């Protein structure tokens, strides 16, 4: 049995350098509530397809690492019964225990890269947590050793964004703003953190990545874009919800991998669901941009 299962349609697409976009499953099984997780899955896969690329949701399916899920498998992950959260280091344990595992950004890009995929989309990457020394998402370390174009709306609002930004610099991970000069704050367009590199069209993203790879660089490049303006929340509103959620998490003694899902749920509640609408909208927009990038990248590769 091959170590990673690719659905047949994806296997030929990857082999022929046709456009493919990998998508994570932790956002579906842990990050978003039911039934919005289904909306997100449909919105993202359709957006990728509209841009001319094939979507590939990554996960561990009953112990088999998989790139691309069947409809039945996706249903199981959306119902999320018995589905664990799997980051990069959890992959072998999920295989050993024949578990259903929803993959984070870290685990997803590890799997996607191993099968030859170059473009990945999500909502927000993990990063440095606030007031929790050494709680830093494995997403950062994995971005530092996995060549991939990662499209997102920045790091999740619940994080210490300034520290996350600094760590990305230390690790040599290029961050490029797509039509923005500022690092977006996931639910909000602004963070006050000025980016060093901005591009305004997809061809420039492909050019940047090719230059990066031609230098033998092994990191991902992180492409950030703001959430759609009609759904974006004001920075102060997000901040106060996050501060409150943080206090609740401490009170409830939440630690480790449970922190991210807990805080995301608390912020949804504290913003009366408007952060949820923003989350769905930005996931779809990121998937659309990733689809465009994959389509252009594949043209450049097969020229
Ligand atoms: N962004 C979201 N919802 C999520 C996540 C990100 O809007 O659920 C998930 C991603 O899978 C990300 C993970 O990789 O949270 C980070 O978790 P941790 O901090 O435990 O590494
Ligand atoms: Mn953590």
Give a short account of the largest sheet.
11 strands, mixed
> Percent helix among the residues?
40-55%
Spans of at least 5 consecutive residues with low confidence: none
Q: Assign the CATH architecture.
A: 3-Layer(aba) Sandwich
- Beta-strand segment tally: 11
How big a fraction of the residues is strand? 5-15%
Number of helices: 12
CATH homologous superfamily label: Indigoidine synthase domain
Count of the domains = 1
CATH topology, anyone?
Answer: Indigoidine synthase fold
* CATH C-level class: Alpha Beta
N- to C-terminal separation?
Answer: 34 Å
Outline:
globular
Mean pLDDT: 96
Question: What integer value in Å does the Rg equal?
Answer: 18 Å
User: What is the N-to-C order of secondary-structure elements (H for helix, E for strand)?
Assistant: EHEHHEEHEHEHEHEHEEHEHHH
